[in-house]
Structures are given as C-alpha cells and as structure tokens.
C-alpha cells in the first residue's frame, strides 16, 4: 500500500531522530528555523486573523466516519474510531502510521488553515501530527513527539527537503496539544498551541489530501478543522 511505502521510506529519518530523544545543550526552548526557502519571523502569539475569517470547509469530531478515515489493523498500525476521538497506534513508538482523507478544496489555489487537537493518553506528550498534500510526494509533515520536540518536513521526490532533527519546544503540553498549519498567499505558518513556531515559503502540494500521523499508543485526535478561502 502507498501508506506502507510512505512510512517505511519517507519518514525513516524522522523515526530515527525520535528514537534518540536527545537535545543539544545549546538548544533553546523555541527554535524557528531559517531555511533557504524563507527566513522565519520572531515567534509569538500571532494567530492569523485573515485565515480565521475564511469559510469552514468541514469540522471533524469523529462521531462517525463519513469522511473515510482508515480503520482496523494494517501492516503499519491500528486505526480506531472511538466515541469523539480517533486513535492511531503502532507497536513501536519509533514507527509512524498515517491516515489520509481527500478534502473538497484546492489546497494549492486557496488559503487555508488546518488544525487538530491531540490528547495524550499517557504521562508524556503524544507522538502525533498532521499532514497536508498527500502521502507520496510534495506534502508537509508537522509532528510532535514524546520528548516535547517538534519537526516540520516538506517531502519532495520521496525524501525530505533540508532534513532536520526533532527540536525541543516549550509550548508542547504533556496532556493536550493543538497543531495548526496556516497557508496565506505564498507563506505557510506552523503553530503549537497557538504559538507560531515556524514560517516557510509555500511549496507545491501534490493532492487535496490531509492526514493524521501517530506513533506508539498514547495519542487520540479529538478534532480536525479545515478553514479555507479562495485567493
């Protein structure tokens, strides 16, 4: 399956970084990466008001499975729709599994906000995240892990551009975390609990799909919200 290939090859570097769980002594509480694609701005509570004015494409609360999230057990993990939640579990916490659905909007041609609230069922932050753009090529992965670290990766030609390690972030909560991706014009921003932690220039997205990704057994997705507006 495509997801199996994605998990086995694309996110191998992410899994290795998670398994190590180390932070340099020089690491800061919040890191905003400076990439050739874009120089990040100063972090802070700068929620995007323009995206908030957009139209709600859909609000997922997992009371049913009309949108077709993956369920059951596969080679990569176990996917369970619970009462008001969605769980992605894997046997090993360093192995990721993903579930994707197709949205009704053109993600390349529209501004949008994608967010999900993730609840930990253990004593550590959940190892989970959100994806936009598909599962094979030209997509973003935004993920946190059990060690209060995050990573943002753009995948092209089946490999991450500018591969990075997970980086510690003080805004990650051990119980509940809201991850958000906001695309406005040629800029894409990433938020943890409404704190902007990274800004990049937008790269092409291969599809209208969005996804949820998890590892281990302590993450429950409580909702997914997609807001969009035409340029």
Automatic annotation (TrEMBL):
Residues 1-19 form the signal peptide. Gene3D superfamilies: Exo-inulinase, domain 1 (2.60.120.560). Keywords: Signal. This is 3-keto-disaccharide hydrolase domain-containing protein. It comes from Spirosoma endophyticum. The lineage of its organism: Bacteria, Pseudomonadati, Bacteroidota, Cytophagia, Cytophagales.
């Amino acid at each position: 399956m495509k997801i199996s290939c994605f998990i086995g090859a694309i996110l191998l570097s992410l899994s290795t970084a998670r398994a190590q769980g180390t932070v340099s002594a020089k690491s800061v509480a919040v890191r905003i990466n400076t990439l050739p694609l874009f120089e990040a701005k100063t972090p802070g509570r700068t929620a995007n008001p323009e995206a908030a004015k957009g139209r709600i494409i859909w609000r997922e609360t997992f009371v049913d499975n009309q949108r077709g999230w993956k369920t059951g057990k596969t080679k990569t993990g176990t996917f369970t729709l619970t009462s008001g939640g969605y769980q992605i579990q894997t046997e090993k916490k360093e192995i990721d599994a993903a579930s994707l659905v197709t949205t009704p909007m053109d993600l390349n041609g529209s501004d949008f906000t994608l967010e999900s609230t993730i609840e930990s069922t253990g004593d550590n932050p959940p190892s989970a995240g959100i994806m936009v753009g598909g599962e094979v090529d030209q997509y973003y992965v935004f993920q946190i892990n059990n060690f209060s670290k995050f990573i943002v990766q753009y995948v092209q030609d089946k490999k991450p551009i500018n591969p990075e390690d997970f980086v510690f972030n003080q805004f990650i909560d051990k119980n509940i975390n809201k991850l958000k991706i906001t695309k406005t014009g040629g800029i894409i921003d990433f938020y943890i609990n409404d704190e902007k932690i990274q800004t990049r220039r937008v790269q092409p997205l291969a599809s209208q799909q969005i996804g949820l990704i998890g590892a281990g057994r302590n993450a429950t997705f409580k909702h997914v919200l997609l807001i969009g507006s035409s340029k």
